Amino acid sequence: MPLVDDDDDFAEILAKTIATEVTFASEVSLARSDVHDHERSIDTRVSVMRPPAGAKYLLLEMTDATRRVRISRENALLIQHGAGRQMIRQLAHEIKNPLGGLRGAAQLLARQLPSAELQEYTQVIISEADRLVTLVDTLLGPGGPPHKQPVNVHEVLEYVLRLLEPAPAGKLHLVRDYDPGLPMISLDRAQIIQALINLIQNALTALEGHGTLVLRTRAIMNFTIGNTRHPVIATIEIEDDGPGIPAELQDSIFYPLVTSRTEGTGLGLPVAQELLSRHGGLIEFESRPGRTVFSIRIPLANEDSVDGHN
Length: 310
Hints:
The protein is α+β, with helices and mostly antiparallel strands and 310 residues long. It folds into 3 domains: 63 residues; 72 residues; 161 residues, Heat Shock Protein 90. Helices cover 41% and strands 28% of the residues. The chain has 6 helices and 11 strands. The strands form 3 sheets. The protein has a 5-stranded mixed beta sheet with strand order 5-7-8-10-9. A 3-stranded antiparallel beta sheet has the order 1-2-3. A 3-stranded antiparallel beta sheet has the order 4-6-11. A hairpin with a 2-residue loop joins strand 9 and strand 10. It is elongated, with a radius of gyration of 24 Å. The C terminus is likely disordered.
């Protein structure tokens, strides 16, 4: 079975077809392997042939449909993003007013506290309220171009890891699979940090302190985002070996308020998608039990890239 890299599901299809002599025609997903570093979608037709000699043979017709399926899924993600954007702005508007009251109450409380040590806690409340107001203003804004500066994505990933403080070594295995040749990219640092926080925090929550978290960066040639084909893009992948996204949620996880966790808000993914869209990028995902990968796609156009390497 080297043709399909010993894929168990596909082997079962071949065995069933030769046993029943019923033609099989469907789209088949082939898992990652040592030969192929990504899952593939294959239009497959398997039928039985009986030459005059009487022996039984299988006729296998295969067409790689990976690109067609990816574009179809990408269009569905863009539709979700468009539908969810207005809801996000409405929610952001509702959040902004209480934040102002929270900040004011913290300022008044700080004046009543007797020690500088206690006032440090109110300062945390004030600074976090200010950060959230800035984020809300971004979500309520007209969606103009982000404030870009040259960013080393590996440094940003390390910064986010320090913020989130993953579980100690021995409980959580952290793998850094960075491409050292990836150039610096012109990005809005604050927006990319927020998007990465949302995605990595989701992965850590899924792992519950045990398992493997992989952070991977790559440059990919000739990649299409929406209707635009880019000569080269940067990809940041966040991979975990947790239980995966429930099948019933996979078609809607980028809509606001969709979550499988009772304590979740359902805003992390749509907000991350909104922030990436402002860079002309997109977040894609694939998920099954034992492997979930969120892939951030960022165009690496000449005007957006900076000479030098990480």
